[in-house]
Amino acid sequence: MNVMDTRATSAMLYLDGVHVSFDGFHAINNLSLTLAPGEMRAIIGPNGAGKTTMMDIITGKTRPDQGTVLFDGTVDLTRLDETRIAELGIGRKFQKPTVFESQTVQDNLLLALNVDHSVRGTLFWRGSKAESERIDKVLETIRLTDARNRLAGSLSHGQKQWLEIGMLLAQDPKVLLVDEPVAGMTDVETHLTAELLKQINKNHTIMVVEHDMTFVRELGVKVTCLHEGSVLAEGSIDQVSSNERVVEVYLGR
Amino acid sequence: MTPHILTRSLDRAAATFILVVATLGVLIPLSNLLLPQGSALHVPTYLVALWGKYVCYAILALSIDLIWGYCGILSLGHGAFFALGGYAMGMYLMRQIGSRGVYGNPVLPDFMVFLNWSKLPWYWYGFDHFAFAALMVLLVPGLLAFCFGWLAFRSRVTGVYLSIITQAMTYALLLAFFRNDFGFGGNNGLTDFKDILGFNVQAEGTRCALFLLSCLALIIAFMMCRAVVSSKLGKVLIAVRDAESRTRFLGYRVESYKLFVFTLSACMAGVAGALYVPQVGIINPSEFAPGNSIEAVIWVAVGGRGTLVGAALGAVVVNYAKTFFTSGPLAPYWLFMLGALFILVTLLLPKGIVGTFNSWRENQRSTGIAADEASAAREDGVRAPKMAE
Fold first, then answer.
1. What is each CA distance from A49 to A97, A167, A210, A238, B381, in whole angstroms?
2. Do B231 and A100 make contact, defined as CB atoms within 8 angstroms?
3. Which is nearest to B360 in space by CA: B371, B373, B370, B351?
4. Which domains does chain A have, with CATH numbers?
5. By CA distance, what is B254's nearest residue in A?
6. What per-residue confidence (pLDDT) applies to A1?
7. Which residue among A91, A111, A117 sits closest to B235, beta carbon to beta carbon?
8. Which residues of A touch B239 (CB under 8 A)?
9. B198-231: per-residue pLDDT in tens?
10. Set of chain A residues whose Cβ sits within 8 Å of the Cβ of B264
11. How far apart are CA A209 and CA A41, in angstroms?
12. Distances (CA, A) of B158 to B75, B149, B161, B193, B263
């Protein structure tokens, strides 16, 4: 792990001058963004703006061609792989809900708990009271207590989204990257999800990518609009949505 | 193994399986040794050896099911590990021949004398000791699987690509073992064995003992697989099978899990091969043939992927069918039948025999529960108006 001697920044996540291109296509172009500890940030932007690629970079799935990506002011994320980054405390929810469909809701959460993830540790694992209490608590938070013994594959789309958020909670990371949490949800579910994220934000730093502007408005947090791989505008939802360029490239007139 | 792993891994189906294998493992040798030849229940020696072969195949099938059924690694080269275990045992058996060979050389096996070799190659050293050979039975396949897996899994080779390179691996070994100068008997392989641990390999008693040992090995292999898949590690394996990158983002080192289970599986396949060789009396390069490995995958598919019991059952059923058909007038058509079997199972029984049975029983149970709930609801319905009053 490449830990720097002194803390370079007070930010929880710090991206500066990041570039990524795939076969000549500049997916991320001089992207700079900081996320303060405890902050919740909403990321908006048109398709192809680089939102998911940015998450790929932060979680180690994609290596940037150049630029700095620091976690907690000290750790250079560009040199670590997915597993190491997850262990450090960055959790991720995918755009398409990805849960372990052939296992029960409960087991999905058990797998997500941030306990010993070594081969030995899991082979000789035995459940503890503390672990099952944590699972119970998460189940309650995501309203899936009654579905705990059901196979995750049999859940509704919205429930799967929540289960995946629940898995993030069980993982208890310092930073949660949440990609389109309300895609395919009903209005009521969307509202509940906003409440859930606000509740989680009390002790976690969160970055949410979302297209649903009503949802973003409901979150009531600072918004960053990406376009062609770099930051187009940043500020409150009202500031950003009244920005000429944002209206032009994303919101439409 | 701590007791809690044992209790967790022994469910009813597992206990039944162990009981059946143990019973057969004891009854078949007993009937062969104790009952008179003419008796209707007497099992002739050739059948003991044949069923011993099936049991070894069942262990191989288990090893494939462990990685394919639970972790999604489709190895089309598992026959290589089986054959390597077999060769390690064959080398021990060759050294036991001593001066009883055709050329009467006390150290060199016949084929080396025939090739005018003057001394034993270094890699044959130690194989005159059973303990050393037994260690190699585990170590050689295990080490190959470890190195192969380390390279493949770290580079994130998955799916079809992994299957293809496992085929290439077994094919490369096939070509190497065919060569006379490779030092393992070339085309003819190793055969004409005399005795094992001082007992004549052809003798009825030895065959029965080997059969019993094979059954014991099957039980141990099965219990090990059960212990693995019923632990939390088993849940991680299934997670890797179903959503590999998700598992990575949860902080699991996926390649370590794959490497562990692949190596364990290769060791099991090696043991199966080692028990197979003294029972069939020969090991030659054709055991590395890619077709063999594919056939073993078919056994698992037929029996039911990801069920363990199904894998073992599939190996026995398909091989019994093979023996039955290839010894009759239908012999030339066996490969067509095997192909048809695979297609039919894929189309009609995609979960295999045991998998289909399990989901049928699951359905029965859940409709049973639904019926109970419905009748309970009806009773509630009757009661509800009263409560309303």
1. 21, 27, 12, 20, 57
2. no
3. B351
4. 1-38+45-88+221-253 (3.40.50.300)
5. A83
6. 46
7. A111
8. 100, 103, 111
9. 999 999 999 999 999 999 999 999 999 999 999 9
10. none
11. 9
12. 10, 11, 6, 41, 16
Judged against a pLDDT cut of 90, whether residue B1 lies above it is answered with no
Q: In a mutagenesis test of the A interface, which of B1, B232, B244, B263 is the best target, namely the one with the most A β-carbons within 10 Å?
A: B232
Cβ of A114 under 8 Å from any chain B Cβ?
yes
Which whole number is the average pLDDT over B149-175?
97
Which of chain B's residues have a Cβ under 8 Å away from the Cβ of A82?
245, 248-249
d(CA B27, CA B314): 22
Q: What is the pLDDT of residue B384?
A: 41
Whether A47 shows a pLDDT value over 90: the answer reads: no
Interface check A160 vs B, CB under 8 A: no
Query: What ipTM goes with this model?
Result: 0.90
Would you list the DSSP string of B168-220?
A: HHHHHHHHHHH-GGGTS-GGG-EE---EETTEETTSHHHHHHHHHHHHHHHHH
Q: What is the CA radius of gyration of chain B?
A: 24
Question: Taking CB atoms and an 8 Å cutoff, what residues of chain B touch A56?
Answer: none
> Tokens for B23?
């019973």
CA angle B161/B162/B165 to nearest 5° reads: 90
Element (H, E) at A32: strand A25-35
pTM score of the predicted model: 0.91
pLDDT at A253: 60
Q: Find the closest chain A residue to B259 by CA distance.
A: A119
Taking alpha carbons only, the member of B80, B94, B70, B95 closest to residue B300 is B70
Burial B365-389 (b: 16+ CB within 10 A, else e): eeeeeeeeeeeeeeeeeeeeeeeee
Instruction: Domain ranges for chain B, please list them.
Output: 5-375
Nearest to B226 by CA among B377, B28, B5: B5
pLDDT digits (tens, 9 = 90+) for B281-308: 999 999 999 999 999 999 999 999 999 9
